[in-house]
Hints:
Layout: E1 4-8, E2 11-15, E3 23-26, H1 37-41, E4 48-51, H2 68-81, E5 88-93, H3 95-106, E6 111-117, E7 130-131, H4 136-142, H5 146-156, H6 162-174, E8 183-184, H7 190-194, E9 201-205, H8 216-225, E10 230-234, H9 242-245, H10 247-261
Parallel strand pairs: 3-4, 3-5, 5-6, 6-9, 9-10
Antiparallel strand pairs: 1-2, 2-4, 7-8
Amino acid sequence: MFSVRGRTAHLAWYRTDEAEAEVAFLHGFSDSAQCWEPLIREMPGVRALAIDARGHGESGLPDEPIRYEAHRDDAALVLSDQPRDGGVVVVGHSMGAMAAAHLAASRPDLVRAVVLEDPPPGSPGDRLDEPWSEPSWLADLRGLDLPARIAQGRSNDPGWADDELEPWGVSKAQVNPRLFDLTFRDAGPLTGLLAEITCPVLLIHGDTDRGSLISAEYAERCAEAAAGEFRAAQIAGAGHSVRRDNRTAYLAELTAFLDRYR
């Protein structure tokens, strides 16, 4: 579906067409830009850009600590290379959502509005660059061939649409194992970032009993902390991958937001 592919420094990116993008998509850990395709197909007319995060998809991996600020700077590098007057709407999931929040806080010239799909809430206190290791669930998936990964995904999440499973499965094999030789710095409080974001924010989350990182109570704290226009949407029956768990409800929230701000 992406008809234009390019590269900026170590970063691979994809656009729906030659026209300047109006919405940029940042994926979560172990996913890739291609994982946004099923959603983007449901929004004809939206001019989209999706970026492979460092160490994911077809992007390279600089030899430096893994930090959300680095993901922010990567997104800024791509967007600055193909700017749109007034900025773009940035949509991020999980790791990509935290990167999008950092970007909106620090580069308002690039971001006109931001959508955060179940970002990590972060934690207060000192944050250090620390060793980390590959999660066992990812190592297990990477040990399977693609048909087996797809079958595992279908078994784990039978409610996902079939078109979600192949890009999800492909992305797992694309994760650069050298990521886990580098140090990682955890996220600071999301509420602190929201206090610095002046553009409109849509926070989309699911139910914590299904794996959502954001609770209804924490969403209320986010609303209190937000410096600008803010809306939280809880999608019933969804977990961490909100758009995959309930695409219809997610699309309703996202398209209404895009219709207003893109």
